[in-house]
Amino acid sequence: MKTLIVLLSILFCNLHLAMAKMQMLPDYVTVTLRNVKSNKYMEVSGNPFQNEKYKDSIALQQWELSTSRGEMDRWQKWHVIYYATANGVRYYYIRNLHSGKLIDANGTIVQQIAALPQPGDGQLWKLEDKGNGQYRIYNKGSGLALSLEGGATGNGVKVILDRIANDGRQSWMLNVIPDDTYRDDAVVRFFNRNNTTQGSAAFDQGNSIPLTWSANNGKVLWVTQDAWDGVQLQSNKMFKCGDFHRYSNSVLIQPAKTNWDPEHAPNMTINNSTSGKPRQVFNIQSGTSWSWAGPGIELGDKVYVHCGEGQGLDITGQSLYRLTQSTGTEWRAERALPNGLDSQKVITYSCGMVKPGDGYVYVFGKEGVSFNYASYVHVARFREANPLQWEYYNGSAWTSSPSPGNAAKIADGRGTVSIAYLNGKYILMTMDQGFDCDTARNIYIATASSPIGPFSGQTLVYTIKEYFKGQYARYYTPVVHPVFDNGRNELLLTYCLNFSACRLESCDGEYLDPYYYRVKGIRVPYSKIGL
Questions:
Q1: Rounded to whole angstroms, what are the CA distances from 473 to 73, 226, 384?
Q2: Cβ neighbours around 46 below 10 Å, total
Q3: What is the pLDDT of residue 3?
Q4: Which CATH class for the 26-178 domain?
Q5: DSSP string of 419-457?
Q6: pLDDT at position 321, please?
Q7: Complete edge-to-edge strand list for the sheet that includes strand 425-431
Q8: How high is the pLDDT of residue 233?
Q9: How many CB atoms are closer than 10 A to CB 522?
Q10: How far apart are alpha carbons 145 and 160 in whole angstroms?
Q11: Where would you tag: which of 187, 225, 248, 257 has the fewest CB atoms within 10 A of its CB?
C-alpha cells in the first residue's frame, strides 16, 4: 500500500510538472525565433525598399540579426498568440510585427498571409517544448515541422515544412522580448476599398468618431479628407495617371468597431444639390478650393466636426459642422462658426476633440513655427451644452479669443500632432515632418493628466519604413483612436501615405497605386507609453 502511495505521488508530481510545463508559454507573448543549428533568426523575406515584407504570400527565411537604430527590425519579431486547445494540444497563431500577418502553410511552403475570417489549420501551430528554451514547431494541418531547407545555415535560407530531423534544423530558441509596436493588418486592409460601387476608395486623414445614439450605438464614423471614388478604379485596382480625387472630404460608417470588412462600411451622404456631390459631406466655401474635415465628437443625436477651409495650401478659415444623425446613410450637415474660430488662421484646431466627462469638450490645435517644422500645441474648450461658445487657453486662463505664441502653448509638437483621451490620460501623438525629403521618420507619444498639461517626455514608439520606388514615401496625418480596444491593452494609431516621394514622379507608368493614399494602422502596447 505504501509503495502504491509513493508511485501515485510520483505520478501526480510528474503530471503536475508536465501541466506546468505546458502552461509556461503565455497566451500572448512577443518573441524572437533563432534556429539552433544556424544561430540565425526567422524573418519575413523580401526587399524592404520595395515594401515586399508587408505583402501576402511572402516566404519566410532565416537571417543574421537585423537592426535599425540599434534595435532589432520588426520583421524578425513575432507574436505567439494562443488560439484554442484540441485533443489536449494548445494551438497558436504566429504573427509578424512588421507586417501584422500570420505564418501560414501552403504545402511545404511557409509564408505570411492575412488572418482568415475562420482560421484554417494551415495558420495554426503546435509548439513542442524540448527544454532549455528550444521548441519544435508543428503545423496543425500537415503535422510537419518548421525547418531550414536542406539544413543549410546561410543568410536567406528558406524556412519550410519538413518531416522530423534531429540535426538542429528544426530546433528554435524562443526568446521572450519586450512587447513592441506592430502593424495592425486588419486595419490596413479595412482601407483597401476596391469595390467600384461602394464610394470612397482612397483618401488621407482618417479620424474616428464613436457613436452611441439610438441604433447607431456601436458604430464608428471615419472622417476623411481628399477622397477618390471607387468608380475611378481600373481593372488592375489602380487609378489612371493624371486623374484627380473626386471630393474634398468624405465620411465612412463602420457598422461596429470590431468589423474590419471594407465591404460593410458605406459612405455617409447628404442632400447636396448645390455641388452635386452627395458623398462630399462638408461643403467647399466660395473663394476656397478645399474643405478638410478632421476630429469630431458625438453629443446626443448630433456629431460636431472641425473643418479647415482654404485655397492651395493656405488656410483661409475654420468652421464647426453639426451633423444630425440618421440610422441610414443620409445625414444633415450644417456649417457653424464658433466665436474666435472663423477668423483664426494661425492656430488650426484640427489635432483632436476630447470629451473626458467633466462637462466640457476640449479641442486641440497646432501653430506651426519656423524652425525644424516644429509646432506649438494649443487647447480650446466648449461646454457640452453649448458647442458654439468657445474658450481658449492663454497659458494661465480661459479667454474668449485664441492666443498664439509660446506663452499659451500646452506642449511642443513635431511636424504633425494628434491628441486623444484614454484611461484618464491625454495622449499626444506627434510625428517628424514627413513631406519634404526628411530622413527622420519617427512617431512619438507623450501623455498628461490634464488638458493643459504638462505632458511627459516624448517616447519613440515607431519608425515608418514604407518606400515609394525605393525612396522614403511621404507620410502625414497622425491620428490616435482610443475607441478601438482590442482587449490586449494596445492603442491604435494611424497615419497616411501620399502618392509620391521627393524628386520622384507619382505615377507608375500609366497608373497611380492607391496603396499610397490609404490609411495605415499600428498598435502600441499601453506599457510602452505609460497607459
A1: 19, 18, 40
A2: 18
A3: 44
A4: mainly beta
A5: EEEETTEEEEEEE---SSS-S--EEEEEEESSTT-PPPP
A6: 98
A7: 416-422, 425-431, 442-448, 459-463
A8: 97
A9: 22
A10: 8
A11: 257
* Cell (9 digits) for 3: 509503495
Residue count of the chain: 531
Alpha carbons 473 and 471: distance in angstroms, whole number: 6
Tally Cβ neighbours within 10 Å of residue 531: 18
Q: Are 110 and 134 in contact (CB under 8 A)?
A: no
**Quick one: CA dihedral 301, 306, 312, 317, positive or negative?**
positive
Nearest to 428, CA basis, from 520, 324, 505, 354: 354
Superfamily of domain 183-529: Glycosyl hydrolase domain; family 43 (2.115.10.20)
Task: Indicate the pTM of the whole model.
Answer: 0.94
Nearest to 294 by CA among 496, 464, 485: 496
Spatial contact of 111 and 57, defined as CB atoms under 8 Å apart: yes
Kindly state the cell numbers that stand for 1. Answer: 500500500
pLDDT tens string 41-81 = 999 999 999 999 999 999 999 999 999 888 999 999 999 99
Angle subtended at Cα 68 by Cα 67 and Cα 71, rounded to the nearest 5 degrees = 65
Q: Report in angstroms the alpha-carbon separations of 313 from 286, 289, 291.
A: 16, 9, 11
Domain ranges for the chain: 26-178, 183-529
CA 312 to chain centroid:
29
Q: What is the pLDDT of residues 365-403, one digit of tens each?
A: 999 987 667 899 999 999 999 999 999 999 999 999 999
Lookup: cell for 307 = 473643418
Please count the other Cβ atoms lying within 10 Å of the Cβ belonging to residue 222: 25
Q: Are the C-beta atoms of residues 392 and 341 closer than 8 Å to each other? A: no
Burial 168-183 (b: 16+ CB within 10 A, else e): bbbbbbbeeeebbbbb
Q: Which residues of the chain have pLDDT under 70?
A: 1-24, 273-275, 371-372
Question: How deeply is 458 buried, as exposed, middle or buried, from its count of CB atoms within 10 A (0-12, 13-18, 19+)?
Answer: buried
